[in-house]
Amino acid sequence: xxxxxxxxxxxxxxxxxxxxxxxxxxxxxxxxxxxxxxxxxxxxxxxxxxxxxxxxxxxxxxxxxxxxxxxxxxxxxxxxxxxxxxxxxxxxxxxxxxxxxxxxxxxxxxxxxxxxxxx
Length: 119
Description:
Elements lengths: L23 H21 L7 H17 L5 H7 L10 H16 L13
């Protein structure tokens, strides 16, 4: 069974899928989602329009997890957004920055040009 992916190499979401290689497209999508949600929540401010903040948080969690893979740091960021003043902080952007940094440290660098000898 072959997995489909689009031109950017982003595979469809599958249950229990391991995070793939962090491509520029995936990282940009995660940052764009995080910044957009943080700005929207800052603009809404203390008004807190009937569950708009919570809907934005669910959308952010799903899109970010889809783009860069699920990481346990996403859970505290999601829970922190339910505190009244904490949603004014850029928690999604900070969380994406931490997850991307940790994943880049964890992933080995891709092999250089030329033949790869696997022993």
